[in-house]
Amino acid sequence: MSPEIRARVPNSQTVVRTAHPGKRRVSAALACIVIVALAACAHAPRVDEPTPSSETLDVVVNEVIERYRLPGIAVGIIWNGEILYTRTHGEVIAGSGDRVDAATIFKIASNSKAMTTALLARLVDRGKLRWDDPVVRHLPAFRMSDPWVTREMQVRDLLIHNSGLRPGAGDLMLWPEPNFFTRADIIAALEHLKPVYSFRARYTYDNLLYVVAGEVAAAAGGASFEELLKREVFEPLGLERCQVGEWHRDRVGNVAQPHMLDGETNVPIRQDEPIIPAVTSAAAGGVRCSLADMLAWMRVWLDPELRTPSGERWLSLKRRDELWSAHITLPVPERQREWFNTWFSAYGLGWRLWDAHGELLVGHTGTLAGMYSALVLFPERRHGFVFMINGNGAEARTVLRAVLTKLIVAPQEVMPVAHYAQRLAQQRPARNVTAPDTSARESVAPEALRDVLGVYRDSWFGEVHICADGARVEFRSSKSPRLRGAVMRVGDQLLVDWYDASVSAEPWLTFERRGSAEVTLTMARVDPLGDSSYGFEDLFFTRVDSCELH
Question: For a 10 Å CB count at each end of the chain, is N or C smaller?
Fold first, then answer.
């Protein structure tokens, strides 16, 4: 890498602060809190480490921006507990001229989960609940499909993705937003979602149980999840622009909007209305914060005493150790082993844990349509970085996270952005299932489907209408308005072509007659390797009414 050559990207802002000099302080106890046999931990380097220059960091960020055509990004790095570097680039809405800065609010998506577990940890510190409390102690209406699992599910289990449900099960109740599902709907729906694995047998990522965890916090804390999060997390830590619950877009101002690429152009999608509603998904992925907020959040976690800006202890060290301990192990991806010599990967309570070149890392990522984030802490060194993107940022996130990680734990091995981008392209897993070609799709006339038109109901997703709309047939969800589209024929199969281009997974429709009158409907992703949040496979509809009556 050539730090002397600084790529020129317009509409960018860089701020660099000088880190404290001297040797980094090593806390072997903190670095090794994960209960894993990590012999490499004892061999963490004990020498002076180079502080990356602003020129080097600018080269990295600029190359990522240019390669992935990002509409906007905010990047921050903490070094020895102090803010070393911030960089912002682009616009909150492409073409608007409104620049991204350190106060711009982004959706942090699943980085919200660590805020939810921090709130719960504060309540544990106060004796309001315990990690091993049965969920039904706080939420008597809670039910899973198996009565034994209902009885045995603990608060801890809500947070570590061990329920046995399909990955992303029930996410159709959360996304695409906005929709009309409530948290009570989610608690009622869980009984109808069938597991695909045994309880506590393995890690399968889910979001619904984090929504349940937020309601556990509300029940134990005596206030809404949103009120508690503001009181217990935002206010004491000085997260002044973080938003949760209902708020006014223009009063707050400077709010990044998500984008998707249309050819070479960034196009805004799912733009906020003037009043941004409280979202059901808040505890799982509904918080929004600025770069300045996220840096303040990180500095507290990197403080050995977990002090607030006012100097008070915010959380007990015992709680931090619980949050950052391995509660369930994960397989180590081949790429991670190759790039970072990683030997373990695990999930804590709202945090992912892994090692890179023998050093413990703690962090998380966040993904929503048109919004990507990543946060990584290096507790042994009191370093960390965070960045947020308001565009198609999946590969950009992987590459930027790789380069920044290498710059911190193995600067002698760091390669240019292009190297990691090329390796990522080469290492994409070969598809053992080919996505079908659906380009030869044709509209379906209502007459062709007259025997199956009607209103259908699923036990947890509610009603969908499959009815005539002029010369075509339309699929419309009652509670998820973005799930609306035209029924199309591809060969002898039917699919839904969504009107909203940001809905990224199309479903096959399969109708089946049972007896003389009953008709059922099942759905499946056209691309079986598509986004698991579109879990159409968990749906089973029965026709309950005719179109004429609605």
Answer: C
